Amino acid sequence: MSRILLTLVLIGPFVGVPVLGILQQGRDEIVASLPEGEGKKTVVRICSECHSLENVVNERKLEEMWVRVIEQMMSRGAQIFGDEKEMVAAYLGRFYGPDRSVLDGLAKARYECLF
Questions:
Q1: Which phi and psi angles does 4 have, rounded to 5°?
Q2: Could you tell me the pTM of the whole model?
């Protein structure tokens, strides 16, 4: 048991820090790929509190469906206040609705990262 702990202590920083850097880089690329518009900053702040923005940009929902998802997140403790729910739902419905192609959102961001 002590060997495992010692190994984790010794190599943890060499493995953990690069992994965190990769995760942050991926997040930054997703944020950069989000379309500009009212609600973008709020979406980034609220939606990345508990999960990856990748979860959000891969969804395709009508604004009304986004409202339901947001309400579910609020019931789980998401900190969404005032008119933020409507603003986030409108932004996501506009840019990540069912009429958006699969190449939009994360697929586009990942493609751009390769080249």
A1: -65, -45
A2: 0.66
CA dist 91 and 5 (Å) reads 46
Give the whole-angstrom CA distance, residue 96 versus residue 113.
20
* Residue among 95, 29, 108, 15 at smallest CA distance from 62: 95
Tally of structural domains, the chain: 1
**Which stretches of the chain score pLDDT less than 50?**
8, 14-23
Using H for helix, E for strand and C for coil, what is the string for 21-90? HHHHHHHHHHHHHCCCCCCHHHHHHHHCCCCCHHHHHCCCCCHHHHHHHHHHHHHCCCCCCCCHHHHHHH
Residue 106 is part of which domain span?
Answer: 2-114
Q: Note the pLDDT tens digit of each residue in 97-109.
A: 988 665 555 555 5
